[in-house]
Amino acid sequence: MALALAGSQNLAQISNYLIYSAMAVYLLAFLAYCVEWTFGGRSRVARQSAALTAKPGGTLAAAVAVAESEAAEKAVPAARPTVSVAMKTAGGGTAVLTRTAVAKAGAVDVVSRGDAEPPKDGVGAAGGSERADMLGRIAVSLTVLAALLQLGGVVSRGVSAGRPPWGNLYEFTCALTLIAALVYVGALFAGKPVRWLGLPLTTGILLGLGLAVSVLYTSSEQLVPALHSYWLWIHVSAAMVSGGALYAGAIATILYLLKDHYEVKLGRGTAKDSWWSSVCERLPASATLDKFAYRINAFIFPLWTFAIIAGAIWAEYAWGHYWEWDPTETWAFITWVGYACYLHARATAGWKGRKAAYLCLIAFAAFITNSYIVSIFINGKHSYAGV
Amino acid sequence: MSDTETTKPAAGGADAAGAAAAAEPDEARDARELAAAERMSTAAAEDLYSGGVRRSAEDGASGTDGEAGADGARAAESAASARPDGEAGEAGAGDSAPVGLGVIGWLRWLWRQLTSMRVALVLLFLLSLAAIPGSLIPQTSANANNVTAFLAKHGTLGPIYQKLGLFHVYSSPWFAAVYILLFVSLAGCIVPRCWQFVKVLRSQPPAAPRHLVRLPVYATWRTATAAEEVLEAAHGLLRRRRFRVGRGTGAAAGSLSSERGYLREVGNLLFHVSLFGLLIAFAVGKLYGGQGDVVVIQGQGFTNTLTQYDDFTPSSFYGAGNLDDFGFTLDSFHATYQTSGPQQGSPTSFVANVHYWKGSDSSKTTAGKIQVNKPLKIGGSNVYLTNHGYAPIVTVKDAKGNVAFSGPTACLQQDSDWTSTCAIKVPDYVGKDGKSTQLGFSGLFGPTMVVDAVRGPHSVFPGLDDPALFLTGYEGDLGIDSGLPQSVYELDTTHMKQFTATDGSPAKQMLTPGKSWTLPNGAGTLTFDGVDQWAQFTVAHNPGTEWALLSAVLAILGLIGSLFVQRRRVWVRALPGPDGTTVVELAGLGRSESARIAEELASFALALQDTAPAEPEPEPSAADDATATATAATAADAEPGAAADAEAPSDSEPGAPAVSGSGPVPSADHPVKE
């Protein structure tokens, strides 16, 4: 018994060390991202490619010819019919999808017309500079390492306490930032061009972990009996995953607003040639960012609804009523209504784009208020912060 | 980027203008046909306006007022192509009411405003704002003591809050106004939308527009297969892909129209309707539910009647007369704590063992266990374990040695080690002089009590290892006969005099079980006999929880459908071409511009190659090569036949096709940049 307890104490210590190490590695990753952006900004290639892609014209004929010749080169044997499908893109351009009639999905070449297609992730933070790109890769590797360390920290904390590692606000924060990191890493491994998300993500994770280990830290303990329930797995993990995803959506929204602001200035011709312009140029198009943010928020909204409902079901078992307007319940409701506002706004004329983005940020602010301000400073039945 | 609702009409106007600039009467007709294809029996369905929608002629003005539907793409197209009628008015929300609307006209206008998306947004926002004060200001329903404390502390702010109803925000009229308006608005939107969706389901998908090339996704090729065969093959393929297919007739002969993704609308409607279910379930719970708290000391019993509750919250239709008939006895309460290790003192389990009976026959009992997170269901009520503590048993004897009071008194814990404050009230006491008076004792109880110089007496472990009682005594009027309610855990000493020791200081005494305290001035004795435990139960009657759960589950299912399912249409046209071959055209339209539509069309086109293989182009183009390549269809503004060539050179004017095509395709994903 004593050995087991000593072991669990040991594990708690190990968990702390792992979290600290993860923080250190995140810091290195953060610095690497910063340097990547810096070096990428100075790169001539970045500037040139930006200039190139911003140039209108370039006939579709040439583009299609290029694409089709490339497709022909790509070891496509003769006599295989291909079908091209034209697709209008946002800026009035046209994309041509060429699909080869092979049993397994053949090559799909997408050719875009070269007008109003803003620089996409191909340019990215590294801006085409070899050095910056290498630093970017280093940053990604460091992020992966940090995420693994953090995963170890969270798991060992759970094992040391013998329960799911999200019983108080410290653990909740660690797990939430971990999920955000894992989703980012997962998306990168799935080939999605989201490396631009790296810098804001590591910033947020560092801030969250810093807050967790300094202010929110409590030692690994048993939970009060009220939390002894399998609902802990369901309700809290749903809330955590939603939180991580909503955080990513909020980052994308902020970047969208910045990029949109920049694009408007570009359109008016008042964009200055500063380091900020260089950063903005290398971000994905505002339309891409907007779509990305919308997809994340819309995807996770049902899960957030489920988290609230699971919480209500649990409240019925624990406190007697499924909805008592407890401060945390109320703010979860406010967050939900905020995101509902956002989704409605995206479907309302005159409210898409920037206004909807502001609503998204307000809703995310409500989420942060709920997690960190209400649960710490306002006393209610849901005060499990443990601080 | 536009900030006004006039974007769409303006865009539509530009489109119509652009079309007109092409100086062909065909253009306007095409645009109208396109509009009809888009809007026929569906755009109105996507219109969130109520029956007050100006539903003009089908090819006519936008009844959508630019705010149509949950999906901007459709609204965009319908609005963009609906302008030819010249209804270039502002969005309905901005309609300036002309003089002489009349009462009915005003009411209709008000109703249209209420059921508009913009007002729904505002109301949603207001709802979240209105919910905020309830989390920051103490609420009567959560903790009435906090409210009284707040009122006592804030002399000016308190009464203001009270007048504004801020101590019961969620049952206040202004909060109710917000959500009632919101639900009325929702009802006004959803009900017509349901009917429109039924109409959509009962009619064919909209016929193919004349110029399929204008649609966002387009493919075309020539084939030797006969047109009828192509159409049949396409029909089969589409059916296999779960599209609902209709055959074009009359002007649209030789074409198929198909649609898929109705679950999106079904999900949307289901979600919003289940919100009503939630509201009703919630209202039923609030109107017909009630709960009460009771502290039961070990060994004692409880019967579900009003007088036995410590506090009881009735509701409009649930009061003392509706309480279920049951009762229970608390046999024992067990709490276990960690006895060693870093988590020493943390509770690991709380169990209350009870015997309960239903009805009025208290002899037929059933054993039961109530734990945290595991309530006991007795009849229509749930019994929850919400708190527990210690109740030291004392016996107070007066000067003559008669027992004035004997029994346990529940003490309220103050910290996680169960240091508890006690208030022992002895209401029937005869003093030395024979006069009836009352005694009160207040102090601290700790299950494992230590005394230290800094904190004084306090408990260090919540389990009953070394209990001790620290008391001081008062004599006088307890105030319990005054008619004003008092907390059982606190002693009101305003009309009492404290016992003093011989040196004049207040008399205090520490007692361990079995010890006695001889009260000063020969007032009697107090003996600490032992310690019982008490448990606090909440007995709640919650009707409507199953309905709430069902509505919630349906809401989530509806959400998933409305957010993840893509609604799209595919049209196929196969007509004999001039040289005897059949010209096949495919076109697709989705609510939001996503690559999936193109992918879907591409794979469909590929599948169609089996029956209708593409023939190489008669004139070799610059892009052609040895493989039989179907041509690249472009945004060329040409006839279908001409577009079948890889006449990419026709695109050498990059500007024109983009503009005179089907216009900018704003969608839910892309802001319209103006």
Beta fraction of chain B: 25-35%
Q: How many strand elements of chain B?
A: 24
| Secondary-structure element string of chain A | HHHEEEHHHHHHHH
Largest sheet of chain A: 3 strands, antiparallel
Distance between the termini of chain B: 5 Å
Content-based structural category of chain A = mainly alpha
Shape assignment of chain A: globular
Separate helix tally of chain B: 16
How large is the radius of gyration of chain B? Answer: 39 Å
Q: pLDDT under 50 segments of chain B (min length 5)?
A: 1-23, 40-93, 619-674
Low-confidence stretches of chain A: 53-63, 75-79, 100-122
How much helix, percentage-wise, in residues of chain B?
25-40%
Q: In percent terms, what proportion of residues of chain A is strand?
A: under 5%
Trace the largest sheet of chain A across and list its strands. 1-2-3
Oligomeric status of the shown chains?
heterodimer
Shape of chain B: elongated
CA-based gyration radius of chain A: 24 Å
Mean pLDDT of chain B: 77
